[in-house]
Amino acid sequence: MSSLVVRNLDERVVRALKTRAARHGRSAEAEHRAILEEALLRTRRRSLADAIAQVPAAGRDEDFERIQSERARDVFA
To answer: Within a 10 A sphere around the Cβ of 31, how many other Cβ atoms?
Structure first.
């Protein structure tokens, strides 16, 4: 296992870390490890609604109109 030293932290960050650690029933060091692991290693799943909301506008509705012609039916024949 490697070690990591973080210097020059704002005292508010340290207090917040200790508060969060106490809420989770672990040491500040264990909380720090958990935060780093979650931020860097765990894949976050987005909801379908979030994914759809991030789809860019791709044109007008009529751009995606279905073509109904004899020639169009032969495309997949």
So the answer is: 20
Token digits of residue 48: 């379908």
Q: Does residue 4 lie in a domain region?
A: no
pLDDT per position as a tens digit, 47-59: 899 888 888 887 7
User: What is the span of the domain harbouring residue 48?
Assistant: 11-76
Specify the length of the chain in residues. 77
* Region for residue 59 given its phi and psi (left: phi exceeds 0; alpha: psi -120 to 50; beta: otherwise): left
* Interatomic CA distance for residues 33 and 56, integer angstroms: 36
* Terminal alpha carbon distance of the chain: 61
